[in-house]
Amino acid sequence: MFVVRGVTQVLGTALSSGMDAAISGIAGIGHICLGISLVLLLIQIKHKVK
Description:
This protein has 2 helices and no strands. By secondary structure, the protein is an all-alpha fold.
């Protein structure tokens, strides 16, 4: 979504407030998924070390 936001800014495309919010929302969901997966990975590593 970072690329999408950057391309729209470089091209000067005007986004509606709904589209702007949708891009931000999808990016936020992606960050949440990455955070959860990082926590799960660290938990798995902790269990393997014991």
